[in-house]
Every structure is written in structure tokens, then in C-alpha cells.
Design brief:
heterodimer; A: 367 residues; D-Amino Acid Oxidase, Chain A, domain 2; eight-stranded mixed beta sheet; 18 strands; B: FAD/NAD(P)-binding domain; 3 domains; five-stranded parallel beta sheet; 22 strands; globular; BFD-like_2Fe2S-bd_dom_sf (chain B); BFD-like_2Fe2S-bd_dom (chain B); FAD/NAD-binding_dom (chain B); oxidoreductase (chain B); oxidoreductase activity (chain B)
């Protein structure tokens, strides 16, 4: 089962970044195919907490995040987008100092972040605890529904006539012109390849004998049953240990980067009750009325990173025709945009903003 | 607070109860946890303490014997206990247990899951009308509180349970409007050889049917309920002959008991890393497990209907096997019982499960407007639309439409949804796995899951890179 004409590009990984790149290169006239070991958008793209907050973005990535935000807004209802504004809370003087220092830098980088007085916070969020010491606000913040990622991009790929294969794990890659990818659904041939497999980039690149220094965090998210209205905006915490939002259907989504267990190589991660408990406790501390909500589900997703916590976006070192895209801190927000940049680069165009050389020295804090 | 035991058994039914007894008799320290107020599980369910006396049944006698044996044993019983999380922590299992409004941890070196079964009801128009309950749900009413589902009841569904429920309604003084079963007399006749090994159970079944026939209760073989009438409460049903263009006949009733077989509760085993296989004659997806309950996961054992629906008799025998296996694995010299009685009982149970399993002719009665996922009020048409735009798995339907994201976590809708995906995509059911199970094992109030919290104990991480 070998196709006669190689694709211009095979994209391995059907998350936001892989799909966004596929759409861009197809617009530019390339033939593309998207391969995913599971379903489209069921990795980090589909299980993250959906927070679209400029307050938790890296300073140097802020221009990318602002453009990403704009793209999410355009996707709108199809991805459950809601621009609610977001508060980041500090409960101690130390946290207040940290909040002030960090959000000032982010505001300078272009995020419309302001510091708000307690009376304004209470007017906006009457169910919040009165123990808040300081708060910042960003009107651009909001969320989308990450569960809809797979469905959204499946539709976009179909509309663009880009073939995709689900349940199609690439088990071997033969270098050459074209590349030959072994999958359970036959051999796929393509002139170029893009590795966009998120937390699975390391084992994927290893098929090409490239060692990418990719680590994975195992972030936990929990959701409650439907509740009466409790919070209107996205709630964050100065330490990053809490993100919280109430969806239109009343369910409350609780995250904050608490770590589950497992590695991408072992399959899916598992929730650790010992880290979920303080996460939920902190949510209840912020919004006491949440205590009576029943928690229905907790799950984990792998957030990939490299030692300098900047993206991998560019040619794969030492393998002509191979590219890599991933490890973007804030990848849910930035993914649709950086996928476009990656697509432009593969098309041979100058991207609107610089990419991030996967061959750089990761020990230096520069991009 | 954590207490450590040699073995924790989750589920105090025929399998879990017997496994606990055997292991405790071998000298091991066993804790037995169950959500119900007394041990017995579903089939051997205990009576409410408000009922002082009631005629005995074979189930109540078996249950009383188990409860008596447990009371006289060294097994520590934790009833009214809801296990909401299980994790492996070094060389032990850590269970988060909700009891008396508080969560605490129970730890054990070995874990036996005896999580039993749940009921499947194939959706038909009106099946969510108040007054419709499951067949197994009805048995819980009878056994625990001698309560009837209504004054005049249509009893419908597959396998032997439909006759047991109809017969119990009559014994407790209720009226059965009709018995409607998709099974044909031919199917029952073909199951006879497998049933011959359990003459006592076969005899009881014959008595149920004889009682109904003597009372001139209409028994509609090869039929199913195609619609339940009534807005706020049941007023009647229409029953149609399956596979034919039959306009059907109507029965007035104020209640309906309906069920299409039992499904093993495999989620806890799945979350702990046990592989699952598809076997329709055992109730669908079942965990990969040895007859004595051993799994490939170190220190984890499964027993009873949670391994595949074989019935209470087989479950009790398997519990004995599993208790002995765990005791041996933990270094106790114990008598290893023969597999033969379990095999005989399992053969009978398997034949009953094969008769009970969901079938396409009943699924065909679900209409586009029928609610399939009741937590999220999703109709069959909603599910089909999601499949039509490319969802090829239960996870994809769940992500796209929230089917399985409500309080039941997909326990009630996934069998129907998997069948719809199989029918639309042409894939066999064995390729449509259930959605990824998520903890908690049961919904748990946030304040109780959170437990005691001191803000100053919050482990402040290294700040994220700026």
C-alpha cells in the first residue's frame, strides 16, 4: 500500500500545531497529510485547561501570544471561545510582590494588564474569598474549550481536502527523497516531514537518530458538575498553582500545573490524588462556595518543554527536509499562530515573526 | 491518616466477600470496603434495618450466610464507604475512601477489585420517563426495602432477570401487566444444554415462568418495548415483535422495569493498567485476568462479575479462588480449591449473559429523537451527527458532544454510543473501545476531596520562567 506520488509533506502529530501548519502549507499549494497515533487533538491540545491568559505567558513570547489570542477569537464558537477577562490573585504579601514584578514586565511586553483594587474585584467576582491581597486584571483573557480541538481541526482539514489518518502511529522513518514512514496503515511517502508530536517528540526524533532534549510535565485538570454561576472570569494565582473558569454550562474547570504521574513513553499519564487534593483545596480557598460542587473528573496532559523553555520551531538538525515544531510554553494559546509561521517557513517564505532554531544551545536563556 | 492492611477488597458482594473470608482465614489482615450499608452486593443485597422480618429467598439466605461469616471473621468491614481514588505508591496501594463525610486513606499490600456489574438499558422513545427503572434496579428495591416499582408494571428485557423481576413483583403483591422479552423460546431451548449443569437454578427459572403463565400474565417472546408513554410519569408502553413490521400492542401501566443485560464495571481495573478485551458473551469489554483473579499488574487481583458477567454463583466460587490465590502469593500455605465448580457455574452464567446481551434488533428501536446520553440530554441524532463529521471513537464523540462528561461518566450511554459508531463506520464492536476512564471512580464533593487545608502548607514552586 504505497502511494504513487509522495506528499509534499507528512505531518506527524495531529494537534493544534500540526494541523495549523498543514492548513498553512496547503493554502500555499503543498500536498500534505496529517498522521496521529490516536485521534486528532486528543493530546495536550485536547486535554489542557483551555486557558487563554496573557498573564501567564512568557515575556518574549507575548507578541506570539497576542496574535494567537486573535486567532482563537476568530475561531469563536466552534472552539468554545469566550473572552471573559481574567484576574490573577495574590493571597500573601510575598505573592503580591511577585505578582507586581511579573505582571509589570508582561504589561511592558504588550499585554493590557492592570492592577485592580479589591472593591473592583469584589464587584466583578462576588463569590471570591475576601482574603485577596492584590490582583491583576487583563481584559483580553478568556478561555476556549480544548475538548473541541479535535473536532474543529478535523473539520478544517476536511474542508481543505487535507487527508488525515487517526490511529496511525509512525513506527519507523527512512530518510531519503522521499522519506518513507512506516505505519500500521501502510507506508507513507513524503518529500518533507514535520515532527509535531508534542510530548512524544523525543521518541519520534529518535527514529531519525536525533536526540531532542524534550521533557514533559504531567499537568492535571479537574472539572466539577454543573453549578449555579460562581465566577465570570478566568481566575489565576500569582504562583501559577491555580487556574479556574466556569463554563457557560456551569461546570468549573480547575487546573494549575499540579503534577500527575507517568511519561509519554508509557502512554497516558495518571492523576495523583496527593496533588489533586491541594489543587482543589486552593480552588475552594479562592471560591469557598465550590466546596459543595462534586468533582466529576480529573485527568492529565503532557506539556513538553526543552531546558530553556522556548519553542522548537524550525529545521531538524542534521536531517535535510525534516522540521520540528513543539515545546511552546503556552502552546494552546500560541499554537495556531506558530503553526502558521512554521507553514510559511516550510513554504520558503519569510515568517512574520522569527522561529526558534531547534539546533540552538539550550543551556543559554536566549531564543 | 492512613491504616495499612495486607489486603484491601473493594466490593462486598459474593465474590469480594468470599475472597476476603478466605484470605482472612489464611491469616492475612483484610479490609473489605463497600458502598452499601451491609455486605451482600447486588444479588445478595441485605435488607434495610427498618424491616424486621420477611420471607426468606435463596438470595437472602446466601446473603445472610455471608454476612454472618464476615461478622464472625477477622475481616475488617468498612461499609458506607466510597472508594474514589486508587494509586500505587511504592509497594502498596493507597485508597482514598469517603466515609461519614470525610475522606481518609486506606493502604494495603494487595488489592482485590470485586466491583461487580451495572445494568444496560437500550434507549427507546420515552425510556427516561419517571417510573421507568432498570431490572436490576428493581431487584434492589425488592431486596432492600420490599418496595414495588408501582402498582401495575410492565417488565421487559433479556435473559433470566426479566422473569425473576416479574415473579418477585407478583410475590410481593404487585400486578404484572405483561412480560416483554426480546429472547425467543428457541433461544432458551438452545441454552438448555449449558444450563443443565445447574439444575437448581434451572428449576427456579422454570418456576418463575410457570407462576406467570398460571396467573395468565401475557408473555411476549421475541418482543421489545418500542415506546414508553406518559409525560411526567409512565402511563403505558407499546411492545412490538422484533424484526417485523409489527404495529405492536399497548399495555397500560404506571411503571416499567427494563434491562438488556449487565456490563462489567471495569473502570478501576483499567485505570490501574489492566488491558481489556471484547467478549459479548461476558457482557462486552472485560479485563484480562486469570480464572483465579491474578492480573499482570503486581499486587492487583480481580474477581466476580467485574471480570465478566457469570452470575452470583460463579462469583462466589471465584471469590474463594481469588482469596486463596492472593493468600498463596503472600506466602501463606493455603488449600488451593479446584477450578471445576467455578467452571461449571461460569458456563451457566455465560449462557445467561449470551441470552442477555444487547442486540441490533432492539437497538433499531432507538429513534433519532430518543435521548441516548441522559446526563447531557443528547439524542441519537446528535451522536450520529458527530460520527458523520468524523468522530470515529467513543473518545472523539465524548470530546465533541460531551457524551460521557456528565455525572455518570459515560456509564449509561457508552454501550449505545459504541454500537452507533460500529454501525456507522462498519467497524466491529471489538474495535470501538470505551472512552478513557477518568478518576474519581465516583463523583466526590470538592470539599471532601480537598480535605483539611492550611494555606501555609502550599508547596510554592519555583516561579515559571519569565
Amino acid at each position: 500500500m504505497t502511494q504513487a506520488i509522495p506528499y509534499d509533506i507528512a505531518i506527524i502529530g495531529g494537534g493544534i500545531m500540526g494541523c495549523a501548519t498543514a492548513l498553512r502549507v496547503a493554502e500555499g499549494g503543498m500536498t500534505a497529510i496529517v498522521l496521529d497515533q490516536g485521534d486528532l487533538g486528543q493530546g495536550a491540545s485536547g486535554v489542557n485547561a483551555g486557558t487563554l491568559s496573557l498573564q501567564i505567558k512568557r515575556v518574549k513570547l507575548m507578541p506570539y501570544a497576542l496574535r494567537g489570542h486573535h486567532l482563537w477569537e476568530q475561531m469563536g464558537d466552534a472552539v468554545g471561545f469566550a473572552k471573559t477577562g481574567g484576574f490573577t490573585l495574590a493571597f500573601t504579601p510575598r505573592e503580591a510582590d511577585m505578582l507586581h514584578e511579573r505582571q509589570t514586565l508582561k504589561a511592558e511586553a504588550g499585554a493590557p494588564i492592570e492592577f485592580v483594587a479589591n472593591n473592583r474585584l469584589r464587584d466583578a467576582e462576588p463569590h471570591l474569598t475576601h482574603k485577596v491581597q492584590a490582583a491583576s486584571f487583563c481584559a483580553e483573557d478568556g478561555y476556549a474549550n480544548s475538548s473541541l480541538t479535535g473536532r474543529y481541526y478535523r473539520g478544517r482539514l476536511q474542508d481543505a481536502n487535507i487527508p488525515y489518518r487517526e490511529g496511525c502511529k509512525v513506527t519507523a522513518i527512512k530518510e531519503g527523497a522521499p522519506f518513507e514512514l512506516s505505519t500500521p496503515q501502510g507506508t507513507i511517502r513524503a518529500t518533507r516531514i514535520l515532527l509535531a508530536a508534542g510530548a512524544w517528540l523525543k521518541p519520534l526524533a529518535a527514529l531519525l537518530n536525533v536526540d531532542l532534549p524534550v521533557n514533559a510535565r504531567v499537568n492535571t485538570v479537574s472539572v466539577t458538575e454543573r453549578m449555579p454561576p460562581l465566577i465570570r472570569s478566568v481566575i489565576g494565582h500569582a504562583t501559577g498553582l491555580l487556574t479556574m473558569k466556569q463554563k457557560a454550562n456551569g461546570t468549573v474547570l480547575i487546573g494549575g500545573g499540579w503534577q500527575g504521574r507517568g511519561t509519554p513513553q508509557e502512554g497516558r499519564g495518571t492523576v495523583d490524588a496527593h496533588t489533586v487534593r491541594p489543587n482543589l483545596a486552593l480552588a475552594q480557598y479562592a471560591v469557598p462556595a465550590l466546596g459543595s460542587a462534586r468533582v466529576l473528573r480529573s485527568w492529565t496532559g503532557f506539556e513538553a518543554n526543552v531546558p530553556d523553555f522556548y519553542p522548537l520551531a524550525g529545521p531538524l538538525p542534521g536531517v535535510p527536509g525534516a522540521f520540528v515544531l513543539g515545546c511552546v510554553r503556552g502552546g494552546y494559546t500560541i499554537g495556531p499562530y506558530i503553526g502558521q509561521l512554521m507553514g510559511d517557513s516550510i513554504l520558503g517564505r519569510e515568517p512574520e515573526m522569527p522561529l526558534f532554531d531547534p539546533g540552538r544551545d539550550f543551556e543559554k536563556d536566549t531564543a | 491518616m492512613s491504616t495499612h492492611h495486607d489486603i484491601a477488597v473493594i466490593g462486598a458482594g459474593p465474590a469480594g466477600g468470599n475472597a476476603a473470608l478466605v484470605a482472612a482465614r489464611a491469616g492475612l489482615d483484610v479490609v473489605l470496603l463497600d458502598e452499601q450499608p451491609v455486605p451482600g452486593g447486588q444479588v445478595w443485597r441485605g435488607k434495610s434495618p427498618s424491616i424486621h422480618s420477611a420471607p426468606q429467598t435463596p438470595e437472602s439466605q446466601s446473603g445472610d450466610a455471608l454476612r454472618q461469616a464476615l461478622t464472625e471473621s477477622a475481616v475488617e468491614q468498612l461499609t458506607d464507604a466510597r472508594v474514589w481514588d486508587i494509586r500505587r505508591q511504592d509497594d502498596r496501594w493507597a485508597l482514598q475512601v469517603l466515609r461519614n463525610g470525610e475522606s481518609h486513606e486506606v493502604a494495603a499490600s494487595a488489592l482485590i477489585l470485586a466491583t461487580g456489574a451495572r445494568e444496560y438499558v437500550q434507549p427507546v422513545p420515552g425510556w427516561t420517563t419517571p417510573g421507568v427503572i432498570g431490572l436490576a434496579g428493581a431487584t434492589a428495591l425488592f431486596k432492600q426495602s420490599l418496595t414495588l416499582p408501582g402498582t401495575r408494571t410492565v417488565v421487559s428485557g433479556t435473559g433470566p432477570l426479566v422473569f425473576y423481576v416479574a415473579s418477585e413483583i407478583r410475590r410481593l403483591g404487585g400486578e404484572v401487566a405483561a412480560v416483554v422479552t426480546p429472547n425467543t423460546r428457541g433461544e432458551w431451548a438452545r441454552a438448555l444444554p449449558a444450563m443443565a449443569g445447574q439444575p437448581r437454578l434451572l428449576g427456579r427459572g422454570a418456576l418463575w415462568v410457570a407462576d406467570l403463565m398460571l396467573a395468565r400474565v401475557p408473555i411476549l417472546w421475541g418482543h421489545a418495548i418500542s415506546e414508553v408513554f406518559g409525560g411526567n410519569s409512565v402511563t403505558g408502553v407499546r411492545a412490538r415483535r422484533l424484526g417485523e413490521n409489527d404495529p405492536g400492542q399497548e399495555f397500560s401501566a404506571d411503571s416499567v422495569c427494563v434491562g438488556h443485560g449487565l456490563i462489567p464495571q471495569i473502570e478501576a481495573a483499567q485505570m490501574l493498567g489492566v488491558h481489556i478485551l471484547h467478549d459479548p458473551a461476558l457482557g462486552g469489554w472485560v479485563p484480562e485476568v486469570q480464572p483465579d483473579g491474578a492480573t499482570r499488574v503486581d499486587g492487583l487481583y480481580l474477581t466476580g462479575d467485574g471480570c465478566g458477567i457469570r452470575g452470583a454463583t460463579a462469583a462466589a466460587l471465584q471469590g474463594v479462588l481469588t482469596g486463596a490465590r492472593v493468600a498463596r502469593d503472600m506466602g501463606k500455605s493455603t488449600h488451593m480449591p479446584s477450578l471445576r465448580p467455578w467452571r461449571r457455574a461460569a458456563k451457566f452464567g455465560r449462557a445467561m449473559t449470551a441470552l442477555s446481551q444487547p442486540r441490533a434488533s432492539v437497538a433499531a428501536l432507538t429513534t433519532d429523537e430518543t435521548i441516548v446520553c441522559r446526563c447531557e440530554s443528547l439524542r441519537r441524532a446528535d451522536i450520529l451527527a458527530e460520527i458523520a463529521i468524523g468522530a470515529q471513537s467513543t473518545n472523539a464523540v465524548k470530546s465533541g458532544r460531551r457524551a460521557g462528561m456528565g455525572p455518570c461518566g459515560g456509564k449509561y450511554c457508552q454501550t449505545a454510543i459504541a454500537a452507533l459508531i460500529a454501525a456507522q463506520t462498519g467497524k466491529p464492536l471489538s474495535e470501538i473501545a470505551p472512552p478513557t476512564p477518568r478518576p474519581p471512580l465516583r463523583p466526590v464533593p470538592l470539599s471532601q476531596a480537598a480535605g483539611d487545608f492550611d494555606y501555609d502548607d502550599l508547596p510554592i514552586p519555583k516561579p515559571a520562567p519569565l
